[in-house]
Structure formats: C-alpha cells, structure tokens
Amino acid sequence: MLAQPAADAKQPATPPRIGLALSGGGARGLAHLGVLKVLEELRVPVHCVTGASMGAIVGGSFASGVPPARLEDAVLKTNWNEVFTDRPPRAEISIRRKQDDFKTLFAPEYGVRDGGLVLPKGIVAGVSIEAYLRSLTETAVGIEDFGKLPVPFRAMATDIETGESVVLDRGSVAQAMRASMAVPGAMAPVEIDGRLLVDGGIANNLPIDEARKLCGSVVIAVNISTPPLKREQITSAFSVSLQLLNFLGKQTVDRQLAAMGPRDVLIAPDLGDISAGSFERAAEAIAIGEAAARAMAEQLKRYSLPPDQYAALRGRQVRERKGLGTVDEIRFEGLQRSHPEILRSLVQSKPGEPLKGETIAADLRRIYGRGDFESIDYRVMEQPGTRVMVIQPREKSWGPDYLRFGVGLASDFHGENNFSALVSYRRTWLNRLGGEWLNEVQVGQVSRLFSEFYQPVDERGRFFVAPYGGFGRTTRPVFVGEDRVAQYDVDDARAGLDAGAVLSTWGEARIGALWRHVDAAVNTGSPVLPGVKETTAGPRVQLFADQLDHAFFARSGYRAVASAYVADESFGSDRNYKRLEGELNAVTTWRAHTLNVTVAGGSDLGTDMPAYETFTLGGPLRLSGYRIGEFAGRRMAFGRLMYYNRAVALPDVLGSGIYAGASLEAGQMKNRFDGSSGASTIASGSVFLGADTSLGPAYFGLGFGEGGRRSLYLLVGVP
C-alpha cells in the first residue's frame, strides 16, 4: 500500500493538469467541501487529489466518485457523536459483555501479558469511524489501486515508529483515510504493510509535493491552518499533545508553501474560532471554505474548461451508488485465536445474495461487539472464476487476557451504606471453541470470590457448559418497622454446573444444578432471624434477555431477567423449598423525554423459604423514601415508573450525559420477617439528578414515602 516515488509525467502545455492538495485540521477541514463546490461551479478540473487527515477524508471521498453536493449532504446529516463512538449499538453486543455492564466495571480494559498490564494504543479504536468512511467511499469498493479511482488519489500518514511521512496509494480507501486521521493517543494507530501509522498531518500536512508528482503541473492547495492554543486553553495532557501536533503540522506546511510556483493557487479559509473538534459547526465551516474559494475566483478561472469538456470530465469522474453485487464466498482473514465459525454465526450477509452496505456494517459491528477485536474491515476480492468477500478482524494486541475494575456505592444518609469494589480477570480463547475462564473478587456489603469456566461445545458457539464455584459473605441489615435492630451475616460456599444456549445477541438461557453450604447468623443486635448451618442443593433455571440501547439511562429497548431454584433433598439439600424471581424493564422515548418502566416480583410459592434467601426492598429507586433493605420477606412485588430528560450531553468517552428525572414506585412485601402482615401496598417516589458516565451510573436524589418519610440518597454504580 505504500507509494513508490514516481517521475513527473510529461504533460501537454495546455490545458494544465491540476492537482488538488488538501490539508488536515479536524472539523475545520470540512471547509474543503466549500472549496470543491466552487471549483465545480467554476468548471475548474481536478485531475488528482492528495490529502492529510480531514483533507484525506474529503479528498478520498471526492476521488471515489462522490460529487461535492452529495458529500455535503452526507456530512450535514452525520451524527458525529456516533461516528466517534467506538461501541457498536448495544443490541449487537455479545450477551456476555452486556452482562458485564451490570457489574459496573469501569470502561478501561487492561490487557495482562508478560507479567504486566497493557492498555490500548488509543482512547478510540476507530471502528465506527472506519465504518462511516466505508459508507462514504462505497463507490470505490473493489478498487485497490488508488491510481485507478475516478480521480487518482494519495493519502498521507506518518510512521509512528520512525516519524517518516508515508504515502498510501493502494488497498482500502477507507482504511487509508482512517490511518491519515489517527491522532496519536486519541485514536489507535492503523497497521498497514507492517508499519504503524498515525495522522498524516504530522509529517506532511499539506501534500503539495505529492500532488505535483501524481499529476499536477498546477497545484491548487487548500490550507486549513489551525491556530495555536492559548495558554488558558492548555488544560490537559490531550491539549498539550494537540498543541504539539499543531506546531509539527505548521512546520511541514511552511516547507510545502515555499515550493509553490506562480501558476499555483493557494486558498486559505479564515475559520476563526471553529476548532478541530467543532463538528456541530460543519455547515459554517463549509460556507467559509466556499467564500474563501470565491475570493480566489479570478485566479481559478484561468483553468476553467468549456462547459462540454468539463461535463465530459465529470461524467467520467462521478459515480452513482450501485449495488455491491453478490459474492461466491465469505472468508475470514488474519485470525490467530478466534474460531471463524463462531464469527460466521454473526454474519447475516450470504453468498449468492446481493450485498448491502448496511447489512455488512451490522455484521462487522456484531463481530466487533464480541470484545475480542481492536478493529475490523472487509474487502471484496476478484479471483479467477469467483468473487470473495474477505472479512478482516484484527485481534486485540493487548489480549487475550483482560483485567477490569469497578466500584458501587449506595447511601441513604441514615446509616445504611452499601459499598462494593470489584476486580474481574478474564482469560479468553483458551481453546479453539472459545473457552473462557472468568475470575472475580468483590469486597464490600457482598464479599465474594467467584470462578467460572465457560466452554462452548459447538463451532458456532450456540451451546455451552459452565462449571463454577466460589465463596463469600453477605451482610444484611434487619429491620423491625423502620428501626434497624440487627445485622445478619450469611457465609456461602457454592459450586454448580450449567448448560445453556446463546440466543443470538439478545439473550442467554441456562439450566443446571447448584450446591451451597450456608452458615447464617445474627452478628450484632437482636436475634430476630434464625442462625442456620445447612446445605441447600437443587436444579436452577436462568434467563437473561437484553435489548436496551444503554445499560443505564436507556432510551429504548427492554431487559428481562428471571430465575427459578428448587432446593430438593434428592440433590443432597437439607430442606425442600422453591425460589422464583423475575424483573422486566421496558423503555421508550419521544423527543427528549424518556419513560422507563420496571416490574419485578419474587415468591417462595408457599414453601417456607429460609431467611437467608429473602427478597428485599427499600433504598434508592427501590422504594426511595425508605432505608436500604428495610423490607424483607418471602413474597415481593415491585413496580417503578421513571421519567428522565438528558440535560447535558457528554462526549462518548466520558458517558452519555447528565439527566434530570423523577420516579414513582410501589411495592408489596408479604410474609415479612419483622412480623408485620405486609398486605398493603407501599408507595414511594423520588426526584433526582443522574449521570451516565464511563465509570458507571450515578444518582443523587430525594426520596419520598408514606407518613412523611424522606430520604436523601446517593447511588453510584451497582453496589
């Protein structure tokens, strides 16, 4: 993919062949679109284009046959927050990774390798960015030589190992564009031909020389200069890096401008305070680029073609979107650990059926959503007698073993504080079928050590077995009325074996047997609950279904969790009883308003379930006006209607936003251990401020209950 130096081609004296050189500049570089619009209006031909960073994105799209008007329309309709979001839509994420969300693990994932911890090479992997670039350049699918694009094209990149400028002239246009815009530290580098490539603006931010080599006896250069940050704007390590990149880019631009000749044209839009990240000001940037090009109209008109000649040229250069056709085979390339059949089960594109860009994009997102890959791409390859779609997932260089951390806190500011800290260590692809060993250590109100070996039993990963074991302690408050009278400690050692099925990306079903040894006793306070030492064992069934678009502060979708356990003497249990529990959550949004409805219930079906198995209510968003765990019993029903509105949007790397909301809650707890009948419905509600962040959800609210009950609460994560 790396261009070789080429001798200047001999061109006729008239008309000149014109090369277009476009600089980088982030969102400021969208001004290039305005320049392209004016060039088209003035009938100025472009015979080749070179670009760095955003210049490579605009230039590569234009070179692929996309006319400026169509490109402008696509840019103005783009949700840039989604483009710079690494996560695929949550509905397409592996169900096991969805389950991790409710452990409130922090976003950073550390690789464990060679006795140390390894982090990704960028905050954003760029998978969504590359998918967006593929959609812009769909007309170039199947063209690997950039010289054979409708407009010959070169993208600039920088080798992060050597600092050398790299010219990309073949391969995937979208991948070349992605490499050219990979800001070091912010976006992961792209490996091409064994070289690790980052933002092309570092080594050559205005590739006039490459435009001249490629085709241009005349060069039109568009310089989107980025002014240095002022001292008060340098507030973080990222801003320091950005300032350094600005200085490096300016040095390369100055060298390129010095080589311009009298026939060349320089267009320098004055973008004022539009920053490299101001994508919401795209229309403004385009208009400024258009005005800057019009200001140079007299110089540009020297190169205008007669209408018929220009129309003929653009007729050859512009390509309409066409179908991607069919392929005879879908193949995976570059896998070292992952089994291709497991990935194939996630692909809905089929050989012999017309390929669709939207379907392919969803296929790639589902594969990426397994959590095993740092990037993914595809290409359509023509071979003698066959046409092949090659999917190219790149396995995480910091895998396959991962370490994550999490914390949770709940407080009612009346003495009830639940805290937990979690460490999760996950080893993946222990065998060709995708065996995974999970180990978790949690300390807090619930302290435990848990280990599970998850083993798929078929090549497509649809069925699995999962032996597990662990031990821990749960500390629970005991209330009589609203007074806490004791603390109940439950020590629990368990082992079990599940068999299950993966229900695509939306759910998982398990059935198995569980053995537990329980030692429960009142630690402090009145002995309201009995002390027991016993074994409980029996079959258990679990169902987990999740199609929420966000784990917390969702805007659409549903989630259902259900479990049934039957303690049975034939399994070695010291007593017989049943425990059934379930929860359903559904979310809908109109405009900025979201309604989130939850119903939950649990019962022992009249089988005298032991005290350590009781259901609880009370505390933040589970009867918010009451103390945490105030109500405990053998039969529970609960409902909540929650409303929230996003007041402040956050960049995706920080979370989804800050919310204002309120909840109405009602519950029943029957056969309570405090001796009360529990027959009446308990009403509650709250108002809150919430945040969905990369460190998990957070709520700060005021709860209301019956009889003037009030509770100030704080909820962070899932304690």
Provide the spatial order of strands within the biggest beta sheet.
16-17-18-19-20-21-22-23-24-25-26-28-29-30-31-32
- Count of individual beta strands: 32
Report on the biggest sheet.
Answer: 16 strands, antiparallel, barrel
Shape: elongated
Distance between the termini: 51 Å
Portion of residues within helices: 10-25%
* CA radius of gyration: 30 Å
Low-confidence stretches: 1-12
Structural class based on helices, strands and sheet pairing:
alpha+beta
Topology:
Blueprint: E1 18-22, H1 31-41, E2 48-52, H2 54-63, H3 68-76, H4 80-83, H5 95-101, E3 110-113, E4 116-118, E5 122-124, H6 127-136, E6 153-159, E7 165-168, H7 173-180, E8 185-187, E9 190-192, E10 195-199, H8 208-214, E11 218-222, H9 237-258, E12 265-267, H10 282-295, H11 297-300, H12 307-317, E13 329-332, H13 340-344, H14 357-368, E14 373-383, E15 386-395, E16 401-411, E17 417-427, E18 436-444, E19 446-456, E20 463-480, E21 483-503, E22 507-525, E23 532-546, E24 557-567, E25 577-590, E26 593-603, E27 615-617, E28 631-649, E29 655-672, E30 682-693, E31 696-705, E32 710-716
Structural account:
- There is one protein chain.
- The chain has about 725 residues and is α+β, with helices and mostly antiparallel strands.
- Strands 16-17-18-19-20-21-22-23-24-25-26-28-29-30-31-32 form a 16-stranded antiparallel beta barrel. Strands 1, 2, 6, 7, 9, 10, 11 and 12 form an 8-stranded mixed sheet that branches. Strands 13-15-14 form a 3-stranded mixed sheet.
- The protein has 14 helices and 32 strands.
- It is elongated.
- A hairpin with a 3-residue loop joins β21 (about 485-505) and β22.
- The two termini are about 50 Å apart.
- The protein is about 20% helix and about 40% strand.
